[in-house]
């Protein structure tokens, strides 16, 4: 299995990134928060998880090992495949997921596209004794390279559309959280991951 990928970022799209490793372009499926940390032409190291199917080999990339661990762990719950697992890591930072499961917080889990109330209850039941306590690491935060002040809008828009929302819904959610951009900051600019999660919360209330 491929544990991580290190190389120059060749391209970044709506749902994936291509990393040049020794002249071979490897496509990694990534969440919007992870994609926001990548810049074409810049070096990157991404922990990876390979999902093997009869007709495909898919490589998923993550911002850190904790996110990768959550992606792999949630797939051990009944009914959770790679697509839903990636949606979970897109919406909930690792510690947010740990807290939701520890607190039997069905409402938080159902914010994830593809998870209904019964699915959330099943995830809590099956993972509660295995997911561990919050680590105190990032919560809704995204580390990354330099970002223009308004670049987060396009990244959040792409993330929401990639998760199944319509462009109109995405625009409405972005406007709803725009006033948070000044407070949700990293050393490199607006925290795209946190703003994406705030936008998803806004949509869940609509």
TrEMBL record:
Cytoplasm found in the keyword field: yes
* Chain residue ranges for the region called Domain III: 151-206
Subcellular localization is given as: Cytoplasm
SMART domains from the entry? HhH1
Q: Name the predominant localization.
A: cytoplasm
Record-annotated membrane-spanning stretches: none
What keywords tag this UniProt record? Cytoplasm, DNA damage, DNA recombination, DNA repair, DNA-binding, Hydrolase
List, alphabetically, the InterPro entries matched: DNA_helicase_Holl-junc_RuvA_I, Hlx-hairpin-Hlx_DNA-bd_motif, NA-bd_OB-fold, RuvA, RuvA_2-like, RuvA_C, RuvA_C_sf
Q: What single Pfam family name could you report for this chain, choosing any that match?
A: HHH_5
One GO molecular function term of this record is: DNA helicase activity
Report the Gene3D superfamilies cross-referenced here: 5' to 3' exonuclease, C-terminal subdomain, DNA helicase RuvA subunit, C-terminal domain, Nucleic acid-binding proteins
Subunit info?
Answer: Homotetramer. Forms an RuvA(8)-RuvB(12)-Holliday junction (HJ) complex. HJ DNA is sandwiched between 2 RuvA tetramers; dsDNA enters through RuvA and exits via RuvB. An RuvB hexamer assembles on each DNA strand where it exits the tetramer. Each RuvB hexamer is contacted by two RuvA subunits (via domain III) on 2 adjacent RuvB subunits; this complex drives branch migration. In the full resolvosome a probable DNA-RuvA(4)-RuvB(12)-RuvC(2) complex forms which resolves the HJ.
NCBIfam families, per database record: ruvA (TIGR00084)
**What does the record say about domains?**
Has three domains with a flexible linker between the domains II and III and assumes an 'L' shape. Domain III is highly mobile and contacts RuvB.
The record's function comment reads:
The RuvA-RuvB-RuvC complex processes Holliday junction (HJ) DNA during genetic recombination and DNA repair, while the RuvA-RuvB complex plays an important role in the rescue of blocked DNA replication forks via replication fork reversal (RFR). RuvA specifically binds to HJ cruciform DNA, conferring on it an open structure. The RuvB hexamer acts as an ATP-dependent pump, pulling dsDNA into and through the RuvAB complex. HJ branch migration allows RuvC to scan DNA until it finds its consensus sequence, where it cleaves and resolves the cruciform DNA.
What is the name listed in the Swiss-Prot or TrEMBL entry for this protein?
Answer: Holliday junction branch migration complex subunit RuvA
Species of origin reads: Nocardioides plantarum
Gene from which the chain derives: ruvA
